[in-house]
Design a protein that fits this description.
Layout lengths: L1 H15 L9 E3 L8 E3 L1 H7 L13 H11 L8 E7 L3 E6 L1 H14 L13 E5 L11 H19 L3 E8 L4 H12 L11 H21 L3 H14 L4 H24 L5 E4 L4 H13 L4 E3 L2 E4 L9 E4 L7 H15 L4 E7 L3 H14 L7 E6 L2 E2 L15 H12 L6 H17 L7 E2 L2 H4 L7 H17 L14 H10 L2 H11 L2 H21 L8 H25 L8
């Protein structure tokens, strides 16, 4: 990448000037008027005039920058047109037309792989996300986790890693037992197997809400629910197990439909029930090795010695907590897919929880130490505030999608396009800011074609593809001279894609891609509004502009892919 080449050239210039290596950055500029790349190297040197060799170069950052500029080696590739000193002492690098033409050819050669890097070549990364609970609605938190997790998986793939997508879903525990109790009490209204899947899982949600409400109002009922929970754990034959199996199957069937709609194909579906025994074994071993201690009959990890807090892993009744099961999950995931890195995506409410669990895992499994990473996301809020599935009065992830599909269909009568636009709108709203922040979701703004939205990007792509489809001749992948400043400006934005993607991968920051794509789409829409792309009387200009349009379409498509957003050919 050109950014790496500039970094190397600066270090060569410093060596020529007798200056030891120093920390500095080279980054894309915010304003193309200040070049394509900028470095603060002179400012860094001027601030820390502790380096003896700096003094002869000048006292100000500007003077130092001029000396470095003069010492820069000639760019053998011809990719840098000129270097300027600007502001208080920045070095600004401007790329050449020959570089932009090379980028254009590379885009049309590599197509969907253009911009992909090799930072994680040979590595295996497992990303675990979504993690719903059977018998309960697929709420907007699961939608958040799915959107962010899928984008992370694609970022890792774009950096050369082999990626496995995992979904750790809850299928045991008191919450499930409450739902089964509700199913049993409401069995007269239970839908048949041939009823629509939405009707069947709606019944499960109501059964869960009913079970929670009754258990809250009648503590004595908890004894019955705990007995149901035990029967599920032990797989005891009878009505409870039958109802449980039906509810589990209905939930999984419905989840799979939602995953397909969201564009996720999981490599591993890992049920909570599958990791219980290994988690219990891990806790017993931790106790024997004095990593855990017994306290009032429970097995706990006193993590204060590591700057954390105490958590219970096995209760005094001898039952595993979520913590114990997560220890088993770490091992299970590594057995399925021996990873170099395992990333778990959940709500930020679990930040402290994962710090303790991962510290315990590091101590118990030295081979996994440093390989476990937790990335948290915020809450998606509507005007009613934070939503909960405990009451049954909840806006589910699926209902949010349905509402947006209905709204999107007003301008897109094709159901497939309306669905793509609706899901693109939701995903973009989630991804356009750093993971961890809460989101206030506005339906109208999310579907807007006027600015910062997923549909705006999709429409720019569809517009570019429409122009190409109207062309009389097939686009050939050949270098065509960029003749105008407007075209050159667009190509300079396009050429940034590999660096933007590399930065997003390094920081695990899909929001950087959102910002970049909005800029690119905005530049293209402005260009489209003021230039005739297809001119029958000027085939050479038409060819140049069509090639430019094709490169824009390809980069927008690649960026949308990383975000997990589909790119409709028409809107």
């Amino acid at each position: 990448m050109i950014l790496e080449n500039i970094n190397k050239q600066i270090r060569e210039a410093l060596e020529k000037l007798g200056i030891d290596q120093t920390d500095f950055v080279v980054e894309t500029t915010k304003d193309l008027g200040n070049g394509d790349y900028a470095s603060n190297v002179a400012l860094v040197l001027a601030r820390g005039n502790k380096i003896p060799a700096v003094e002869p170069l000048g006292k100000s950052a500007k003077e130092i920058a001029e000396k470095i500029r003069e010492a820069l080696p000639l760019d053998a590739s011809g990719y840098i047109e000129r270097v300027e000193v600007a502001g208080p002492g920045f070095l600004n690098f401007f790329v050449s037309d020959s570089y932009l033409l090379e980028v254009q050819k590379e885009i049309l050669d590599e197509k969907s792989k253009f911009g992909f890097g090799h930072a994680r070549d040979g590595q295996k990364v497992m990303v675990e996300y979504t993690d719903p609970n059977i018998m309960k609605p697929f709420h907007v938190g699961h939608l958040m986790s799915n959107t962010i997790g899928e984008s992370f998986a694609r970022l890792y793939e774009a950096s050369g890693a082999t990626v496995a997508r995992a979904n750790y879903f809850s299928d045991v525990g008191l919450a499930i037992a409450k739902a089964v109790w509700g199913m049993r009490e409401m069995r007269m209204t239970m839908p048949s197997e041939v009823a629509p899947i939405v009707e069947r899982t709606d019944f499960l949600g109501k059964a869960y809400a009913f079970g929670v409400k009754q258990a809250d109002e009648s503590p004595e009922l908890l004894r019955d629910i705990k007995e149901i929970n035990k029967q599920i754990y032990n797989k005891s034959e009878g009505e409870v197990l039958l109802l449980y199996q039906i509810g589990r199957r209905w939930s999984m069937e419905h989840f799979e439909i939602l995953y397909r709609k969201l564009g996720t194909i999981f490599d591993y579906l890992i049920p909570e029930s599958e990791v219980v025994e290994s988690g219990m074994d891990a806790c017993r071993r931790a106790l024997a090795e004095k990593l855990f201690v017994e306290s009032d009959g429970a097995i706990v990890f006193k993590a204060e010695a590591y700057g954390l807090h105490t958590r219970v892993f096995i209760t005094k009744e001898g039952l595993p907590t979520y913590e114990a099961k997560d220890l088993g999950l770490c091992v299970r995931k590594n057995a399925l897919f021996p990873y170099d890195l395992s990333v778990s995506v959940t709500a930020y409410e679990q930040d402290e929880y994962f710090r303790v669990v991962f510290k315990a895992a590091d101590l118990l499994y030295p081979n996994l130490a440093g390989k476990l990473k937790h990335v948290s996301h915020g809450m998606l809020r509507l005007s009613s505030g934070k939503m909960s599935s405990r009451t049954g009065n909840v806006v589910t992830g699926e209902s949010l999608i349905a509402d947006l599909e209905k709204k999107a269909s007003e301008k897109n009568p094709d159901p497939a396009v309306a669905s793509a636009v609706a899901i693109g709108a939701i995903k973009y709203e989630i991804l356009k800011q750093a993971p961890g922040r809460d989101i206030i979701f506005d339906m109208e703004k999310s579907l807007s074609l006027e600015g910062d939205s997923g549909p705006y990007l999709q429409y720019a792509y569809a517009r570019a593809k429409s122009v190409i489809a109207r062309a009389e001749f097939k686009i050939q992948n050949s270098k065509v001279k960029i003749t105008g400043q407007n075209e050159k400006l667009l190509m300079r934005v396009i050429a940034r894609w590999p660096d933007i993607l590399a930065s997003a991968v390094k920081d695990l920051a899909p929001q950087q891609i959102c910002t970049y794509l909005i800029q690119l789409a905005g530049e293209f829409n402005s260009y489209y509004a003021s230039n005739q792309i297809i001119d029958e009387n000027d085939r050479q200009t038409t060819k140049m502009r069509l090639l430019l349009t094709a490169t824009i379409a390809q980069v927008v498509e690649n960026g949308l892919w990383v975000l997990g957003i589909s790119a409709p050919q028409r809107m």
